[in-house]
Design brief:
Elements lengths: L3 E6 L3 H13 L3 E7 L2 H11 L3 E5 L7 H8 L5 E6 L3 H13 L3 E4 L11 H13 L20 E6 L3 H10 L9 E5 L6 H12 L3 E3 L4 E2 L5 E3 L5 E4 L5 E5 L11 H12 L3 E5 L8 H9 L3 E5 L9 H7 L5 E3 L1 H14 L1
Length: 335
């Protein structure tokens, strides 16, 4: 089995050594080079042709975001390595929109990098396993639901770019509330919500307390907490993180509580991401008569969550984010 070829980019020699050691220890990854800044990363990427590049966000000279402008056009996948600072989170959100496949938040003390070693290896293996761009298949457009009461969205790896692409085609606030559960760490969802609002002009809120679910608003679950729909359907509220839970926020819990309240009025979108979060939620939405759409493989960074829903026969339609936006606009026009 061929090992995954990785180029490590970080201005800290200690960080480069630590990351290289962690990746080499997996036995499935080969570190083919280490660059000190963005300019050197571009040069080495062209020479070494890695499968994956880990790219530090904040570096002197050419930083990670500037380097990504060139690297995103290459055949490799890029994973941003970010600090937990507000500035680091804001730059990371912009990088995810610009084409980075995923990100990892590194500890402020590099000596603690081993705490995130498993997550880094998992992310590298996931993005490396995703296929090269496929020729888009022509698929039938599913029937339009008679009405929509709420739009519920679940996403993980690649989700920020897919969501920004989707809402970038929405002309004005939708006539129903939208709730998003995306696998992001605490500290990263607020910059994402702010960036989504700035890019689209739509009202976007990171939920930090119980709020009324109003039409036109987009509610983003904060990292580390589940966002649920109250039994009355009037409120969006939070549940504290569960240490043993695989994902917080959970796509399943958002969809399950939404389906209980809005039934056939729910439209659920399962976007790009690793794992199967959203499968149980999609089953609940279908069981209550709602509509389930999944992102197509061609536009997904990792076709894991959508694949799980398709494999169970729960998807009404398979679409790109652009096609999902057009679908929602058609429903709006019927209202």
């Amino acid at each position: 089995m061929n090992r995954i070829r990785v180029l490590v980019v970080d201005d800290s020699a200690v960080a480069r050594m630590a990351l290289s050691r962690i990746l080499a220890s997996s036995g499935r990854i080969e570190v083919v080079g280490a660059a000190r800044d963005g300019a050197e990363a571009i040069k080495m990427a062209r020479e070494l042709r890695p499968d994956v590049i880990t790219l530090d966000v904040e570096m002197p000279g050419m930083d990670g975001l500037k380097a990504l402008e060139t690297l995103a056009a290459g055949p490799w996948k890029v994973i941003m390595i970010s600090s937990y600072t507000t500035r680091g989170a804001e730059i990371t959100v912009k990088a995810l929109e610009a084409g980075a496949a995923d990100y990892l938040a590194k500890p402020s003390n590099i000596s603690e990098i081993d705490r995130v070693s498993s997550a880094l290896i998992e992310k590298i293996e996931a993005v490396a396993a995703s296929t090269a761009p496929l020729r888009r298949k022509k698929r039938p457009i599913p029937p339009l639901p008679k009405a929509c009461s709420a739009l519920l969205i679940g996403a993980s790896t690649g989700g920020p770019r897919a969501i920004i692409t989707l809402f970038g085609r929405i002309k004005s606030p939708l006539p129903w509330p939208t709730a998003i559960a995306m696998h992001m760490l605490p500290g990263f969802t607020a910059p994402f919500a702010k960036h989504l609002a700035e890019k689209t002009g739509l009202p976007v809120i990171e939920v930090t307390e119980r709020v009324i679910a109003e039409p036109g608003f987009i509610y983003v679950a904060p990292g580390g907490k589940d966002m649920l729909i109250s039994s009355s359907g009037r409120n969006v509220h939070l549940r504290p993180d569960e240490p043993k839970a695989t994902y917080n926020p959970s796509v399943d819990r958002l969809l399950e509580t939404g389906a209980e309240v809005w039934g056939q009025g729910v439209i659920a979108l399962i976007l790009t991401g690793m794992g199967q979060d959203g499968l149980a939620g999609a089953r609940a939405v279908r069981g209550r008569g709602g509509t389930v759409l999944v992102q197509d493989e061609e536009s997904s960074v990792v076709w894991g969550m959508p694949r799980a829903v398709v494999s169970e026969g729960l998807a009404h339609g398979i679409m790109s984010p652009e096609e999902m936006a057009d679908f929602l606009e058609k429903i709006r026009s019927m209202a």
